[in-house]
Amino acid sequence: MVRPLIDNQKRVFKVVRPSLREPRDSDPAISPSSPSSRSSRTAPSRRGVLAGLGLAAGGAVLSGCASPAVAGIVGTGPGKDTLQFWSLLGGADGIVMQGMVDQYKKTHPNVKQQTVTLGWGDPYYTKLSLAVIGNHPPDVGIAHLTRARILAKAGLLDPIAESDLERNGLRITDFNPVAVQMATINGKLYAVPLDTHVQTVFYNTKICKQAGLLKPDGTLVDLDSRDRFTEAALESKKVTKQWGFGIGVQDPVISWRQFQGFYSQAGGQVVADQGTKVVLDDDKAGEVIDFITGLTLHKGAVPSTASSGAVFNAFAAGTLGLFIDGDWDISAFKAAKTPFDMTRFPQLFGSVPTDYKVQADSHSLVLPRNSGRSRQRLDTTLQFIKSIISQSLTWGGGGHIPAYLPTDRSEAYKKLKPNSNYAASARHAAYDPDAWYSGSGSHFESVVGGYLSAAFTGQSSVSAALKNMRRDLNRLAKTKSPLKSA
Amino acid sequence: MSSATDGALAGAAAPATASRKRAGSTGGLQLKSGERRVGWALVAPFLVLYAVWLVGPTLYGLVMSFFNTSVARSGLNGFVGFQNYAGVLSDPEFWGTMWHSTWFTIITTIPLVILPLVFALLTNRVGRGQWIFRFAFFAPTLVPVTAVVLIFGWMYSANNGILDQALAKLGMGPGNWTVTTGMSWVSITILTVWWTIGFNYVLYLAGLQDIPTQLYEAAALDGASTFQQMRTITLPLLRRTILLVTMLQILASMKVFDQIYLLTSGGPNFSTRPVIEWIYDTGITQYRTGYAAAASIVYFVALLVVGLVWMLINRRPSEED
Amino acid sequence: MASTAPVAMRRLDSKTGGPLRVKADWRSRAFTQLSWTVLVLFGLIWIFPAFWSLDTSLRPEGEIAAHPAAFWSSHWTFGAYGTVWKNADMLGLYVNSFLISTLSVVFTVAVCSMAGFAIARIRFRGYRLVTGIALAGLLIPPQIGILPMFREVQSMHLLNTYWSNILPGIAAPVAVFVFASFFRGLPHEMAESARVDGAGWFRIYWQVYLPLCRPAVAAVSIFTFIWSWNSFLWPLLTLSSPKVMTIPVGLNSIQTGFGLIQGQIMAGAVLGALPLVFVFLFFQRHIVEGVANTGIK
Prior knowledge:
- Chain B: One of its GO terms (biological process) is transmembrane transport.
- Chain B: It is a multi-pass membrane protein.
- Chain B: It is found in: Cell membrane.
- Chain B: The chain crosses the membrane at residues 38-60, 103-123, 135-156, 182-206, 237-257, 291-313.
- The structure holds three protein chains of three kinds.
- By secondary structure, chain A is of the alpha/beta class.
- Chain A has two domains: 82-193 and 363-402, Periplasmic binding protein-like II (D-Maltodextrin-Binding Protein, domain 2, 3-Layer(aba) Sandwich), CATH 3.40.190.10; 197-360 and 430-478, Periplasmic binding protein-like II (D-Maltodextrin-Binding Protein, domain 2, 3-Layer(aba) Sandwich).
- Chain A has helices at residues 4-16, 35-39, 44-62, 66-74, 91-107, 122-133, 145-153, 162-167, 177-182, 205-210, 226-240, 252-265, 282-298, 308-316, 330-335, 375-390, 392-397, 405-408, 411-415, 443-456, 462-478; strands at residues 82-87, 112-117, 140-144, 184-185, 188-189, 192-193, 195-204, 245-246, 271-272, 277-278, 322-326, 340-344, 358-361, 363-366, 401-402, 429-430.
- Helix content of chain B is 73%, strand content 0%.
- Chain B is built from 15 helices and no strands.
- Chain B has helices at residues 4-10, 14-26, 36-64, 83-89, 92-125, 130-138, 145-156, 162-169, 181-209, 213-221, 226-237, 239-254, 258-263, 275-285, 289-320.
- In chain B, helix 9 (181-209) runs antiparallel to helix 12.
- Chain C has two domains: 24-84, no CATH class; 88-258, Orthogonal Bundle (MetI-like fold), CATH 1.10.3720.
- Chain C contains 15 helices and no strands.
- The two termini of chain C are 25 Å apart.
- The relative contact order of chain C is 0.15.
- Chains in contact: A-B, A-C, B-C.
- At the B-C interface, helix 1, helix 2, helix 3, helix 5 and helix 6 of B face helix 1, helix 4, helix 5, helix 6 and helix 7 of C.
């Protein structure tokens, strides 16, 4: 073999060694000065460069960006002059919330307010945690109640005293007690619930009428039994010639939501004792999974091969008769001018009407931990929360059921259709299990939902799904909680 | 091959030997004993920062991996012995993500070793206008990853994206670019190749430039064709560069986080989540910092093994020289 | 052995041309033509994403929605840029990124060139130990340290400051080796004569050697700047306050955060990409050489 590397080496070396390098005019950046000036012991150009950089940096600081740059260099606590509000709401919800914040700004012109919206789910909660840990918490943030509980147990939220609420015109008894209970840990309130958002039935009035699924008053027939549910799905399928009941069973989280609703109706619980004990009931869970699998794989009543997006699009386009999804789809279907109405998530399990449950969570407003929060600042923040809560009717228009009872009970809300059709669901909310690894958008939902989805779509057997769920749950239950309290 | 990378990054031991040799021949200065301190003074800032920001975290990470440390709590929180390690080693999720990182390494290293080599060989043929290609292939490396993902996310987007639009023109269905696991890997790979090809391309160009022109001249006089020249001169002489690029690429790919986190968040259903994202999810999002620290150590040991294997492969031929 | 001189501040020469000035026969010419064709084709593919994002960012939103794949617009507009600039505080992101990267460069060059000079030129007791320590540092991937480093930064109360993104990167072993090998390539007689003139070591380093190693300074500065400018995971963890976010982290939050629509998202991407690409246009050779000489990615 040739040994060119050595020649090569020399050649490179010659080029490289600065003292031997020929000056090149074509290369002003590397050798801006002449060779003679380089061999002298001063290096004005290099210094010039450094000085230039320094000047540029200094210039940037001075040119009107002084305060953030200073904040970056010396580090400051949370901004003193601005009321910071963090949100994870995107899409239609985000637009409605922005309108409500704008309304607050109009009524409180003396407060400087800033909204920061971050990616939904884990990215948001991670950033919120990091902001508190990093001592730059926002004044107020949105959190799902299932996640607020975890944040509170991690010591990342400040409790809200009833007296402080009352001083600012809010009474805790004015909120949906189911949500308030979720927001309370060891007798302390950690969140002000804004709404309850539930799974609901959307139905296309035109298709359902054709399929004979409407009562004389124009509302959907009773679906509250497994037979009637299946039958309705098949009747509607006859009209659309495509799908019966649209449920996004390919999506893990959507699968989890349906399961959690039905399984709770059957009286089942997944984990207990703050998530340290797996109490999954194979019989009850198996019955629920069997039922849905029957719909998807055997009776063709629910499409198993369509993605959740495809089902959603079909309903929006008016080619699907029946659809189960979160109440927040209202805005999209209204925008798409779909002829639709809504009713509550059906009761297919349990023996008496009081067994009724529906998977739900609530948006709430929380106070991220901030030891330096003055009373005045607390009041400003609570006034902001009050302003948002008092606009609950606007918020409810986006589909979510207001947690603020004065709104929930108001005539205006009762007239808000189709929202008020399912508003009673909020009292029967089945939240995700109380555990450090659970909650909306959590890994738990995706993992457990993944096994459910696999069974619903025929990729795994019912028994395998149960076995996998149990295995993963056992693992999580055995893991010591990383939270401060439980 | 003689770049600093060669010695410094990869063939770790080489510069040490080199400097020892050199010190004997050139450092013939008589130092007064008091001035020895100057040496220490000059390296002191480096050593302090090194201790605080490299040694410190590594040791602290090692300690943490034996505790139930949580990012939401102060202190180490309860010694658990090897429990974290036992947990990590038997955690299917961890090994799943290790495999995802490995799979990513396989599917990106191959194109990222071959394509830039081809581009560099071709660029070397082109006399004028090389800078245009250097610009085209290297500029993407300078684009922040978030911008890269925003741009590709738009091209990949369902129905409205330019790629789906093009497919529709050809009468084909949507590409499901980030919908299925298989297509997600394809999308991630395309993005990664586009974004990072510039580094390897430039390393190859540098390697090609080190090959003495005389060799080609001699070969041409002997009547060797272009392909013969490439086979007998270019590729053998580029061997070290190719090895170097391969190794750097493997190490870089095993560390993948940014573009996958941003493009698919590890989805669909965690099927593309790389190990660094798992460590981030577990250690930060789920607050299980001690457990994730143990996983980091396991991952580090795995990388070290890869590095050692490479050194073994690379050692032998270079000792012959 | 090749690595006797890890120095190698090479130039990638485009002007003197490749090996192919020698007697090109027709096959060789044909091959060159083919090279051109293939390269131009791939070059266009490589440029396309940039072109497409620029194109989208300049078209009105209505047109994008109606004809997502149309290249031409009858109403080109900079409107999206205005919205993004205002809503996403791009200027703030630029300032943060620029200050963090610049300060990183200044500190890295200062600290690592001193250390490199010491281990290359001063035969003090323990230089071998220092070399060994620095080498060991090359083996530790920074990713394994993110969790403990986060705790460290947290306990120092440096979260949400620039320092959390400057200090951890300064002691870069690679930079030390780049400097050390460069200093070794310089004639040692310079130091000797300076010593005879009575100059102290620091002066020798600062006034004699450092000014001569501009290519090494350039290489280290360039890779430090690029690395710092584009790093994502660490600032994602440590800069949660919008006030101090860098471009990669800030762009990530505008993507979801401001209810932006497609044209504006692309405008954000273009604005995020612009500074370094623009700089690259002017310092292309420097940057390419810097990367080739340090091999950092």
